[in-house]
Write a structure and sequence with these properties.
Helices cover 76% and strands 0% of the residues. It is mainly α and 356 residues long.
Length: 356
């Protein structure tokens, strides 16, 4: 097909679609102008009921929690319906007409100004095929997730592959996708504490930081299988604190701090958090201990510099402590040591960012 006919068909379809959309908008506006007795809030609450069912079907809400969530949404629906005022529609048709006609015209004008109607199509399958052949270090997290998702179709019963897919989706800011991948992995290997911990962390990300019931179950199962694992202990202690059991939570956090290795990068943050929860009474002593551990890590890296993870921990520690001069010096040294390792450089950049 020639370029002329391809563009002709494209613009013909675009015009037809715009006209259909305009007619649909006008028809809906006419119905709304004639009669409308439903408050917009009612529609929102009804949509929430549908979303609850979708979350259950996608595995993001436990079935036993479905009834409670639907009951709460239904209560709000009834309240909104009882309070909904009679609809008052004035001036709807002229505005709808302007929107229906103006939107397609504006869209076409913008596309002609900044679009590329002559650009060849680039199907997703073709792009994924190219990404699979590329150096993984050159790919963005969404591209890596797309590649692993495609590979997982051929190996649906590989829990390690699903674990890697979940990690890539977390990096791509897709916690829902990560949780789904980890659910499948756990179903294949239900007694793997690392998978259960990762699933709990994905649930926390999905809920925006809240340690909800599904995350607590995952962490409890992981802790039962591996009582020494750090992640379940930390989140279960935080859950106790969130429930008002502060003393119990502090015991858990202190026990975790005592068990962490001396050069573990999480020690500094955990010690500061414990001091904050206790009211800062031991903060000065802890700061000295933290600084001593960081200095020890720095001395070890001077003697054994070929340790990219160690440099990332050191940069992160200086970042958390607010020691920008030492952070920048360590970052410059590490960049020079690993200048041919894009993956390490990305990790170093992330470690140098101050947590919000």
């Amino acid at each position: 097909m020639s370029a002329f006919w391809a563009q002709f068909l494209f613009w013909s379809f675009a015009v037809a679609l715009s006209l259909a959309a305009a007619l649909a908008v006008l028809a809906r506006a006419r119905q709304s102008a004639d009669v409308s007795s439903e408050d917009p809030g009612v529609t929102v609450h009804r949509r929430q009921l549908a979303e609850i069912d979708e979350l259950v079907s996608r595995g993001l809400l436990a079935p036993e929690e479905q009834a409670q969530a639907r009951a709460e949404a239904g209560r709000r629906l009834l309240t909104s319906a009882e309070q909904a005022p009679a609809a008052i529609r004035t001036g709807g048709k002229p505005l709808a007409l302007i929107a229906a006609v103006g939107a397609p015209v504006l869209a076409v004008a913008l596309y002609l100004a900044i679009g590329s109607p002559g650009m060849a199509d680039s199907p997703m399958d073709g792009r994924i095929a190219l990404w699979r052949e590329a150096d993984p270090a050159s790919l963005s997290p969404p591209q890596i997730a797309a590649v692993l998702s495609e590979v997982a179709k051929d190996k649906p019963n590989d829990p390690e592959l699903l674990r890697m897919l979940a990690a890539a989706r977390i990096q791509a800011n897709d916690p829902f996708g990560a949780a789904n991948a980890l659910r499948r992995a756990v179903s294949l290997r239900p007694n793997d504490p690392a998978l259960l911990s990762a699933l709990g962390e994905a649930f926390v990300a999905v809920s925006g930081g809240e340690i909800a019931a599904d995350a607590r179950r995952a962490f409890a199962d992981a802790n039962r299988l591996d009582p020494k694992a750090a992640s379940p202990r930390y989140y279960l202690a935080q859950a106790a604190i969130a429930d008002g059991r502060k003393a119990e939570g502090l015991v858990g956090l202190k026990g975790l701090l005592a068990d962490l290795p001396a050069d573990d990068p999480n020690r500094a943050n955990l010690a500061s958090e414990i001091a904050r929860l206790e009211g800062g009474g031991q903060e000065e002593d802890m700061s000295g201990a933290i600084q001593g551990m960081v200095d020890g890590l720095a001395a070890r890296l001077e003697a054994e510099p070929d340790d990219p993870e160690g440099w990332a921990r050191l940069v992160r520690a200086y970042t958390v402590l607010g020691d920008t001069a030492r952070r920048d010096a360590a970052l410059a040294r590490a960049r020079n040591l690993f200048k041919d390792r894009p993956d390490v450089l990305r990790t170093l950049e992330t470690a140098s960012e101050r947590p919000q």
